Amino acid sequence: MDYVEIGQVISGFRERMTKLALFDPLYELQRKRQTDRQNKPIDFMELGLLTLLYFFEQKLMRNNKAGVKDLAEFLLKVTGIFIDLDEAGFEDLARQITQVFRPTTGKKRDFTFMNWESGVAEHIYISILKANAFDLKTNTQYYTLDEDGLELIFATKEFYTEFQLSIHQLVLRKQLEKGEFEGALRQINEMRIDVEALQERMVKLEHELKRNIVSEETFGRYKGLLEDIYLRLQMENEEFEELRQFVKETKDRVQAQTVRQVDQRPYELILRISNELEKVHGEHSVLFHQSMVLKSHALGAAQESLYYTGLDSFNFDQDIASLIFSTPLPPETMKGVIAPFLPVQETKMWSLLTVWAEQNLLEDSSGQERDDTFLEIGGDSEEYRYQTMQKKLYKLLMEQLLQLMEEQGCVELKSFIQRFEERESARLLGERAFYDFWIFLHQRSPLRALDQDKQQNEEQGTLLEDMYALLGNRCLVVIEQKEIIQVNDRFSIQNMLISWGEQDDNRT
């Protein structure tokens, strides 16, 4: 057997075990045994990975308020058709998973192993989730991915290729926190490649906008795509601003440390990182501006192009004239074809003199002449019959009101309605005229019989004649109350207090 260098084989054994330790919470979830309401087993490991993806997306979307209930709602939407549990059941699942990723004690998970490179037993402490915020009003704890949680996500397949730049931004921040400046430089170079790739995609998208929008459906699809790109670039731009501030703080800290040290390399690296990050940020800002231009100008131009394409493709001679002259169409069909293209010119103007102009005689649908003048109340008209009925109703209500006032002195409308419901004429509570009577009393209060002459000048005919005659020389005062009376499903009216006013004997 060829000689094997043992030191090279087991070199970096601790780092490799650290990578494996990240998966320990998922294996612990896999060992859980639980069934749903149909006795189907629940795979906690898969739900654990869904949980990591959910919190990873919340971190990319810069949402700092994601708790157990939000996670339960996400799991219900994704797996609800396969796992038969109610909302409380999914909330219990979400709580169990978060407790595995972040123990209730608040301590990090302990992973023990033998480091065969050093020959001693070691402990690795991992933290997948960490507490992010707490809402005192709702007593809700919010969580976010910790560094090890990000490592675990990156160790799996990167599902979110469209968020590649956001992932590099998160990794860059973590490398700067650890002081891995050379790795941070490589990360910035990868970010530059991502920005260049996005620039190429934006150019292709602009060409596609001008070439492929041939219908409202494609226009709506590209509009939604541009809005998603704009929002993503906006979030990345905000992260760049925070990274710039973080690099500045790191540079000031490293500068203060290198003053007392001989090695100036860390400070030189952080200066390069700052310069390179500014270049990438500048290129990304141009890309962000380009997305705004596409979202506004290019999309509008594409919509106009779609409109004029429709106009250019329409040929009157071919689509209308040839159809009429070459095809034997019935007169009714021909009229329908031509009508949209021969509108009558209309001018929305009118003269004040037309109000007093002579009314024209018109014909109705039956062919009989009708006069379009204002209606007047005649002996045989419906209006006259309705007014006669209303006159009798007002007299009836006034008689009953005065009778009740003679017994009690003052009357509330509420009590009047209650007594009115017990009589044969209770059906009148469903008529509009019943409520018009009380509204009239309230508007004319105080009400006297000698006011009748003034009312006759305002009302047509002698609608109120009998009602006023019942008052004699007495006076009614109507005062509104705060209570609203719900008489039936159709009518409600404000309560009123009807009482006697001062009698004016000089006016009799």
Please write out the topology.
Elements: H1 6-9, H2 13-21, H3 24-30, H4 44-60, H5 68-79, H6 87-101, E1 109-115, E2 120-126, E3 129-135, E4 140-145, H7 147-155, H8 164-178, H9 181-212, H10 216-258, H11 265-313, H12 316-326, H13 331-338, E5 361-363, E6 369-371, H14 382-408, E7 411-412, H15 413-420, H16 432-444, E8 447-448, H17 452-458, H18 465-469, E9 475-486, E10 492-500
Antiparallel strand pairs: 1-2, 3-4, 5-6, 7-10, 8-9, 9-10
Provide a descriptive summary of the structure in words.
The structure is a single chain. With 508 residues, the protein is α+β, with helices and mostly antiparallel strands. Helices cover 57% and strands 11% of the residues. The protein contains 18 helices and 10 strands. It has helices spanning 6-9, 13-21, 24-30, 44-60, 68-79, 87-101, 147-155, 164-178, 181-212, 216-258, 265-313, 316-326, 331-338, 382-408, 413-420, 432-444, 452-458, 465-469; strands at residues 109-115, 120-126, 129-135, 140-145, 361-363, 369-371, 411-412, 447-448, 475-486, 492-500. The chain has a 4-stranded antiparallel sheet with strand order 7-10-9-8. Strands 1-2 form a two-stranded antiparallel sheet. A two-stranded antiparallel sheet has the order 3-4. A hairpin with a 4-residue loop joins strand 1 and strand 2 (120-126). Helix 8 packs antiparallel against helix 9 (181-212), helix 9 (181-212) runs parallel beside helix 11 (265-313) and helix 10 (216-258) packs antiparallel against helix 11.
